[in-house]
Amino acid sequence: MFTTNPFAGISGFAPALMQWYLVVMALAVIVGTLFDIVHKGSARYFFENMRRFKGKGREVGGGEKVSIAMQTLVVDVLASGEFFNAKRRVAHLLGMYGFVLYIAATAVLVFCYPASQQAGIWPLLWWIGALMVLVGGYWFWFFIRVDVAAEGQSPLRLVKADLFVLSLLVSVTLGVIWAATGGGVSIAFWLYLLATAVLFFGVPWSKFAHMFFKPAAAFEKRLSRADGTAENLPLQTRDDPEQQKRHSMELLQNAPMDMGLGIKREAPRHY
């Protein structure tokens, strides 16, 4: 099972079906991401932010920018350095690398071995990627994600932000079930295609596009720290009148920002 190309079983039904399907899904991601950029104004925000602070900080040389870009790539992108919770980071890395491996193996199997049961190591890589997604995704969903019960919400409560992870889990789960039951054209196959279409066509309404925005945001954040413009952020002190207004208790208005941290008995576990 782990060494057999599951997509070879549909070659007699429609030889080019999966190839055209993957092309349409790729176009859906591109169009959906562009729509998301225009709708949310993400690119406009970055360009306006860069223009607003241009000339206000020190000049960052080309070599330093390359170093910052490499730090962004290694720490923020490849290692998911924004997650300080070790379990959350591991779950995210499992899902991220599993998804990349799963998609790459799917493309190779469909385009390079469309009718061949034997496809070298690629079927095994497809299974490894799929199982990584399932382990990381279900671990996150059932054990790491926001504890909605602690917030007074029902554990069954779903919001739009859940669309990406849920559609991904449903798609990969159905794919694994379809492949484990022998592949071919079956009800599981059509459900697999339907769930995958929801995943890729749902880009404008899910967090799918964030994988393209996060590297740019991380780079801009590191660059603003390097050139000093990050210092223009609001002061994190209650000496600042705007910060004082955030607290209704008179006792806390003039207190230091770290007052009250001693009463914490455990590290935050819900996020």
Structural class: mainly alpha
- Average per-residue pLDDT, rounded, comes to 81
Beta-strand residue percentage: under 5%
Number of strands: 0
How many angstroms separate the termini? 38 Å
Q: Which percent bin holds the helix content?
A: 55-70%
Q: What's the helix count?
A: 10
- Domain count: the total is 2
Would you mind describing this structure in some detail?
This protein is mostly helical and about 270 residues long. It has 2 domains: about 5-235, no CATH class; about 235-270, no CATH class. The protein is built from 10 helices and no strands. It has helices at about 15-40, 40-50, 60-80, 85-110, 120-145, 165-180, 185-200, 210-225, 240-245, 250-255. Helix 1 (about 15-40) packs parallel to helix 7 (about 185-200) and helix 5 (about 120-145) crosses helix 6 (about 165-180).
SSE diagram, text form:
Blueprint: H1 17-40, H2 42-52, H3 62-78, H4 86-112, H5 122-144, H6 163-180, H7 187-201, H8 210-227, H9 241-244, H10 250-253
Helix pairs in contact: 1-7, 3-8, 4-5, 5-6, 6-7
